[in-house]
Amino acid sequence: MLKIVVCVSGGGTNLQAIIDGVREGSVTGIEIVRLISNNKKAYALERAAQAGIDSICVSPRDYTDRAQFNEAFVREVDAVTPDLIVLAGFLVVIPPELIRKYENRIINIHPSLIPSFCGTGYYGLKVHEAALKRGVKVTGATVHFVDEGTDTGPIIMQKAVNVMPGDTPEILQRRVMEEAEWIILPKSLNLIAQGKVKVSDGQVEIAE
After folding, report:
1. Which end of the chain has fewer CB atoms < 10 Å from its terminal CB, N or C?
2. pLDDT tens per residue, range 118-163
3. What whole-number distance in Å separates Cα of residue 1 and Cα of residue 28?
4. In angstroms, rounded to a whole number, what is the distance separating the alpha carbons of residues 21 and 27?
5. Dist. CA 197–CA 189, nearest whole Å
6. Number of separate helices (H) and strands (E) present in the chain
7. Given the DSSP bridges, would you call strands 30-37 and 55-57 parallel, antiparallel or unpaired?
8. What does the DSSP 8-state code read for residue 164?
9. Which of 110, 128, 144, 175 is catalytic?
């Protein structure tokens, strides 16, 4: 059983997609052992409570500096000895020491087809605003491993989503979640839990 910690800053729709996948049997071999949020008002905390998942808020605002927050965050992750950390809409820079400690054991969902519209400053609605401003016809989502860069780790899975005439950032965000994020994040977790995902020379290999 793969023990996972899920980190969320907001509503937790990707967390819910994982919970639903486990409940429906499309995701097997995982257990969510803790939800961590940096936001005391995040609805993800309520979703975790409803699902009987241990949860905790670790907010940078509660610490005098980033070093203290990083120490607390790492401590709360380590406390449940996870096999995998899942960043499911987590708008906080992950401490470098955690990335090194959990090399190739942290994954992130990003709302674009990396390498488009990713990196520093591209998060949440900003990604979709940029896609619409550029006039792309296709966008999507990416699940990738986390390294010490920003959205630069090995790509596990991607799914394309069409941009429609009249889309607003909010409408596009919802379509990307429904047609890509909520599909490929549970699928990626299932593959990892089945031992089918391997990183070799900076690229992901998925066994049949």
Report:
1. C
2. 999 999 999 999 999 999 999 999 999 999 999 999 999 999 999 9
3. 9
4. 5
5. 9
6. 7, 9
7. parallel
8. -
9. 110
Q: What is the pLDDT of residues 30-50, one digit of tens each?
A: 999 999 999 999 999 999 999
At 125, the amino acid letter reads: L
Neighbouring CB atoms inside 10 A of 158's CB total 16
Alpha-carbon distance of 64 to 51, in angstroms, equals: 33
Buried b (16+ CB within 10 A) or exposed e, 83-97: bbbbbbbbebebbee
pLDDT of residue 208: 78
Q: Are 4 and 31 in contact (CB under 8 A)?
A: yes
pLDDT at position 199 over 90: yes
144 is catalytic: no
Report CA-CA distances (Å) from 71 to 5, 61, 88. 17, 14, 21
Structure tokens belonging to residue 37: 């949020």
pLDDT at position 186: 98
List residues bridging with 146 in a β-sheet: none
| DSSP-H helix ranges across the chain | 13-24, 43-50, 66-78, 96-101, 125-134, 169-176, 182-193
- List, for residues 18-32, the tens digit of each pLDDT value: 999 999 999 999 999
